[in-house]
Amino acid sequence: xxxxxxxxxxxxxxxxxxxxxxxxxxxxxxxxxxxxxxxxxxxxxxxxxxxxxxxxxxxxxxxxxxxxxxxxxxxxxxxx
Length: 80
Fold this sequence. Notes:
Elements: E1 6-8, E2 18-24, H1 32-41, E3 54-63, E4 66-75
Parallel strand pairs: 2-4
Antiparallel strand pairs: 1-3, 3-4
């Protein structure tokens, strides 16, 4: 991406400056998977299924001159 903004890399960059691993936790059926899907793939699905166990998705962004890979882990919520 040109300029100093934020952008997606369509192809895997050769050099990644930072890798961040983030866990998303919370109650069951509050939208954790939807937030992850919107961030990683820019998708939103109204009829998604509950997460079983743990899943993760990645997104690589460029901020100014730094390439950052975000690995976001989605956990299953627990009902009480």
